[in-house]
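Support request, please re-run this one:
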Amino acid sequence: MIMNKLLILVLFLVVLILSGCQEPNIEADSTGLFQVESKSEFKSRIYMPDKKWFGIEVIKEVEVEVEKTVEVASDIIDTNEQVVGVSESNIVKTNGEYIFYTPKTDDTLKVYSVSDTIKVELYKELEFDDFNTNDMYLTNNKLILIGTDWKHHNAEIIVLTLENFEIEYKLEVDGSLEEHRLIDDSLFFVVNQPINNNDRDMRPKMEITIGQDKESVYTSYEEIKGFIEDEEAHNVSIFAGLNLKSYKLNKETFLGRINQIYMSKDALYATKGSRVREEIEKNKALIHYETRIMKFDVDSENSELNYSAVGRVGGYVLNQFSMDEYNGQFRIATTDNLRVENVEDFEGIGGIVSIGNSEIVNQVAIFKTNSETKEMELIGEIAGLGKPGERIKSARFENDMAYVVTFLRTDPLYAIDLSDPMSPMITAEIVETGFSTYMHVWDEKHTVGIGYSADESGRIKGMKISVYDVTGSTTKPFVTEYFSNIESVASNGFVTKQWNFSEALHNHKAMLISSEKHLFGFPIELDGRELTVVNEEEKWSSYTKSYYNLYMIDPDSENIISLLTQVDHTAENGVNAVDRGIYIDNHIITLSPLSIIVVDLDHPSEVKQILQR
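Re-run finished. Output below.
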């Protein structure tokens, strides 16, 4: 009897082991999306070296006292955002009553009060243990901090009340917050989380603290989805919506990592680029890029992101401005690099040889979602943008128009009419030296670009801002203001070399823009070296100058681009690069780690206030 029981037990264990070794039966829908059904299926789709969860510590409560509740002002400009109604984070936020600022060189959060006469004073300075604020959002009654716990390598979201600056909510995740947006009281974010290769529990995990209550929130294996064409995944991407009133968290989880997102008030589009190798004949393959586009419907009232469709397009996406949604259509600008490889055998050793030169292809593609098949279907495209070898350097969409800049040696800016999505048409082509890294649609006839000036051979000479007439109906299509790098010899024999740079060249949030007020501002940094000769001995000295330049841009005036004010933040000792500039009631307020400077735009040549740290 005992032997029979032992035999049954052994047989049961053998069956259990064999069942665990079988390949999971993964079924995908027509779009290639499948549902993970178990831990074994999850394990079959991932790869990651051993990695354990980092420990998590609760940050200390901030002890502060405030005397009044923040009210919203009516005339302010802070963060330059892509879509109206979809807020983007920044290191400076204001509502006109307070300015919230986290310098890039400091771990503290500084709160400044703003009087009715626009006098700025330090109100509170908040410090957090092991937490560094990278970005912020501001609502009528809450401040949302996005940052990292540098001690435990966690990404964190912290929500403070503006009434008393107490911590109401905190979310911690072992990974990174790739992207995030705010619509009303709904914070939407995408978490990139490495897969925990701990065989006991491999589920993605978050730590959530509300008041004094802390809990671990897991994603079950059954909640995870993936695409059949993906090979072994190192990460999961969690698409989440957090309601800032109820703190209810909604999420969808996918295998793999995303690259970029675009978000409107109705939908979120996430892209993932990959290199593709397609065999075109024996021992010969075409190598190119492909971007997968995942669409999520946005329910901002309930703080939900609901996966709805997938699409695929050739090439890779430069940034969020290369994407747009309009009239139910999704438009995207991509660059592809096509190359043919020949697989040969060198004396028994396999090798890959490229055949010919690679070909760069720039295009704009238009998609429409088929709700029945859950596919984003291509309905129109225009390819062949740019001269041979040129890549997309910036793109922008506005209503029925697309604006695309390509560059290798010169800068063609294309204005493309998308009113008939099945037959896009180039309506204007502007060619100049240099290129724009960011474009802003100023009005129906003009765009404003910031980027690099260059000579005819494509060599970068410095920065530039440009105003373009994109109607194609003028003999003077653009006006440009240059900030040239300098290399000169003075009459006294001194040699000066100077280079200029701005964060605005790669970060649109560093700019202050209002076409209604004709304002265009950004920080600029000048790094220079000066050679002096004393008693026939040469000596180089270095210097750094930091400014905030605010321009008036009016395409209808005789002087289209004019410098309204240049705010000098240059420090005598050390670097004091300007982080941001904001506008409150006809005043420009510029912020740097060492000082805050206020200028009344009725008297732009005068400094109204300097607040030293």
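The first helix runs from residue 2 to 21. The longest strand covers residues 349-370.
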